[in-house]
Amino acid sequence: MNRTDFIKLSSLGFFGLYSCGISNSLKKDHRLAIQLYTIREAISKNLEEAFEKLAALGFKDLEIYGYDGAFFGKNKKEFLSILNNTGLKVISSHHKTGVLENEKGTLLNNWEKSVEDLQFIGTKYMVCSYLIPEERTNENYRKLPDILNKSGEITKKSGIEFAYHNHDFEFEKLGDNKLIYDFILDNTSPDLVKMELDLYWITKAGFDPLSYFEKFPGRFPLWHVKDLQKDTKNFTEIGNGIIDFKKLFEAREKAGLKYWFVEQDSSDKDIFESILMSKKYIENNSFFFD
């Protein structure tokens, strides 16, 4: 880590807090995880320094994005070495479908090779992350469950679970007046396809996660934990918005929660300052996984 970064982190209070042991999670071996899209700008500048900053904040686990046959431009051995050097582990990885994009790392383009590489670095979950706007047609939605089931069959052979991550468009209706999200849940195998519930997007769409936990218990082992500003509906630090995280975490067993990831797509301040604010709220409320 260079001197500029050290000064910047120090000014935000990272090292003082870290050395004083504010994180009980570090002492008790509780885990904290983050979706790396949150710090995409820092990653684009220097991958290893970005990881060092996360480690200094007490994060131990990651959800990655952008695998395209390589990990942020590194082969699997190089990337695993960086993880080992910074003490970080990859829990989950995001992938697009490849229905309209012929890219490596997608569900429909040599998925077996993707699974092999993610297994090599110790990943527990692989997730269908996003449908590009051109994919969002009734025809493609109706084909999606079969694609997801087949992807889950392949990951399962390697001991990796598969999941689908939502935004808000899945809470629009298909031609038969059924919600797209419900259609996916009803037409995929609970054994092969889990759900990574994004608490921001489902809330923005006007739906209650608790109702889904009741209707589909155990189906939501992964969450994206991010908050929603009341007036602007923009992203904000966890605890600074309108989402009742205490109520949601009380239902974690019903949901089947195993891992969850801090995420903040954008911020009106330095993103690492935002992460620190979210981390404080998490620790004050003991929202951990072991």
Keywords:
alpha/beta, 290 residues, 14 helices, 10 strands, eight-stranded parallel β-sheet, globular
Structure, explained:
- By secondary structure, the protein is an alpha/beta fold.
- It is built from 14 helices and 10 strands.
- The chain has helices at 3-11, 14-20, 24-28, 40-45, 47-56, 76-86, 111-120, 138-157, 180-186, 199-204, 209-215, 245-250, 252-255, 271-284, and strands at 33-35, 61-64, 89-95, 125-128, 161-165, 194-198, 222-225, 227-228, 235-236, 259-262.
- The strands form 2 sheets. Strands 1-2-3-4-5-6-7-10 form an 8-stranded parallel beta sheet. A two-stranded antiparallel ribbon has the order 8-9.
- Residues 15-27 have low confidence and may be disordered.
**How many β strands by DSSP?**
10
Rounded to an integer in angstroms, the radius of gyration calculated over CA atoms is 19 Å
Name the average pLDDT: 92
Strand fraction equals: 5-15%
Element order: H for helix, E for strand:
HHHEHHEHEHEHEHEHHEEEHHEH
**Shape type:** globular
